[in-house]
Amino acid sequence: MTNGIFITFEGPDGAGKTTILSMISEKFNHAVITREPGGIDIAEQIRKVILAKENTAMDPRTEALLYAAARRQHLMERVKPALEAGKMVLCDRFVDSSLAYQGFARGLGIDEVWTINQFAIEQMMPDLTIYFDIEPEAGLLRISKNKGREINRLDLENLNFHQKVREGYHILLERFPERIVKIDASGTLEEVYKKTLQIIETKLAEKSL
Ligand SMILES: Nc1ncnc2c1ncn2[C@@H]1O[C@H](COP(=O)(O)OP(=O)(O)O)[C@@H](O)[C@H]1O
Ligand SMILES: Cc1cn([C@H]2C[C@H](O)[C@@H](COP(=O)(O)OP(=O)(O)O)O2)c(=O)[nH]c1=O
């Protein structure tokens, strides 16, 4: 599609994507670092609607459509122009999050969610997706430690959902083996960082051949 390179970071909550992305961004200081849902003003506004605690009445399909709408806007405003300018774009979450969370864990169906996302992204898929794999318990524990509290009842109620999210990602790994690379995210930050860097550098070397 372009001269740039589009790399996405995926995985369950607490896998370490955001932390590793900020470490990687120091190495590739010319790269565009962004995230979904959000990244630009209109998409951040949509993010607020999706994540607002008071919106308990939100239908799962509405949620999937809003993620796809935010994705489209972010893609057109930030990702596509950067790729066309030959830049590297590193994005925290992309379409695989919708497939794993809405498609599989919420039960809308991976194929159904893929179809609505085709309208949003047309053919603009990542060159590489790094999937940070972790047991949901460990991911939630990291998040709760960060907030300085133990895992509570609500977190545990969510465990089943997070287990499904992980299962969803494993289905995607089988479906897109040439695009998605799995990393064991349960190691130390240094280990996960080194592995991530190695995968990105391998891809960059392939691209320049
Ligand atoms: N490899 C790791 N080992 C221990 N703690 C980690 C590791 N990676 C991330 N963390 C911590 O776990 C918490 C969640 O990490 P974060 O990067 O926000 O995850 P994500 O973006 O995948 O939800 C943060 O407090 C972070 O410092
Ligand atoms: C992009 C995207 C995110 N999400 C979810 C995953 C996260 O729980 C939440 C994003 O919140 P965020 O605070 O960015 O979480 P994280 O740091 O784990 O990336 O939205 C979806 O359900 N579908 C999507 O398409």
Write the layout of secondary structure elements.
Layout lengths: L4 E6 L6 H11 L4 E4 L5 H11 L8 H25 L3 E5 L2 H11 L4 H12 L6 E6 L2 H11 L6 H5 L1 H17 L4 E5 L4 H19 L2
Helix pairs in contact: 1-9, 2-3, 3-4, 3-5, 4-5, 4-8
Thymidine-5'-diphosphate (TYD) binds next to helix 4.
Radius of gyration from the CA trace?
A: 17 Å
Tally the helices: what do you get?
9
Full CATH superfamily name: P-loop containing nucleotide triphosphate hydrolases
What's the architecture, going by CATH?
3-Layer(aba) Sandwich
Instruction: List all distinct small molecules, including ions and cofactors, that are bound in this structure.
Output: adenosine-5'-diphosphate, thymidine-5'-diphosphate
| DSSP strand tally | 5
* First-to-last CA distance: 17 Å
In one word, what is the shape?
globular
**What fold name goes in the CATH topology slot?**
Rossmann fold
Largest sheet data: 5 strands, parallel
Major beta sheet, strand line-up: 2-3-1-4-5
Helix/strand structural class: alpha/beta
At the first level of CATH, what is the class?
Answer: Alpha Beta
Helix and strand run? EHEHHEHHEHHHEH
Strand content: 5-15%
Helix content: 55-70%
Mean pLDDT: 93
Number of domains: 1
Low-confidence stretches: none
Domain Thymidylate kinase-like: 9-194
GO cellular component, one term: cytosol
Organism: Neobacillus thermocopriae
GO biological process, one term: dUDP biosynthetic process
